[in-house]
Amino acid sequence: MSTKTERYQVCFSMIYTKKSCEEFVEMLAGRDPVPGGGGASALVAAVGIALGNMVGSLTIGKKKYEDVQKEVTVLKEKALILQRDLLSLVQKDARVFAPLAKAYGMPETNEEEKTEKREVMEECLRQACSVPYEIMEKCCDAIKICDGFAKKGSRMALSDAGAGAVFCKAALKSASLNVFINTKSMNDREYAEEVNKKTEKMLEEYTAVAENVYKNVESELKG
Question: Is the pLDDT of residue 5 over 70?
């Protein structure tokens, strides 16, 4: 972070993931810019991969599934890491977005102030964009893991693997909107378009994977 943008950093004492579900939802509905769409996306994805992880928990130790115990154990280990990473991104998203919200209020009464504001805004936009992009990457990993749970996990909990994939797809798409709203305002269009291209690629590939998981689960459940 450059010296110019450091003054727009905000010190956070509130840990959003330590709030109750009711408190978090009320904060989302409030006037403060954080938590916002990025943090909500990360939380939804954490719930999604946790649902997949539950399928793994219900599979481990079952004689009927002893031939996939090692594979499911690996999936569970990866899922647990993702759960924790996604929850940490709820907080990180708030931390990087708050300076951008503050920078919008910078004065523009002369050319020097206008130049400073442009520079600060550009850096803040990159920071604010980076976290929803990271959330998207985690969502892609989570969708793949939910797919694994759907294929190898307990059939008694198959619906949860499908639901997990759907949650993660929703989080992937919603996080992408938080990428696009920031790249739209960037002056460095080459950088912005490169980020957009990578974002669109994740959307195209992993929404299809998640939808395939859903359709396979739905088909099996309907018989």
Answer: no
Given a cut of 60, whether residue 12 has pLDDT beyond it is: no
Please give the backbone phi and psi of residue 6, each rounded to the nearest 5 degrees, phi first.
-60, -35
pLDDT-derived band at 107, boundaries 50, 70, 90: confident
Please state, in angstroms and rounded to a whole number, the distance separating the CA atoms of residues 103 and 180. 19
Inter-residue contact 101 to 33 (CB < 8 Å): yes
Q: What is the pLDDT of residue 11?
A: 47
- Class (C level, CATH) for 16-222: mainly alpha
Q: 31-37: list long-range contacts, CB under 8 Å, 24+ apart.
A: 33/97, 33/98, 33/101, 34/93, 34/94, 34/97, 34/98, 34/101, 35/90, 35/93, 35/94, 36/93, 36/94, 36/97, 36/178, 37/132, 37/174, 37/175, 37/177, 37/178
pLDDT tens for 44-97 read 999 999 999 999 999 999 999 999 999 999 999 999 999 999 999 999 998 998
Domain regions of the chain by residue span: 16-222
Under a CB-based contact definition with an 8 Å cutoff, are residues 117 and 108 in contact? yes
Cα separation, 28 vs 33, in Å, equals 8
pTM: 0.91
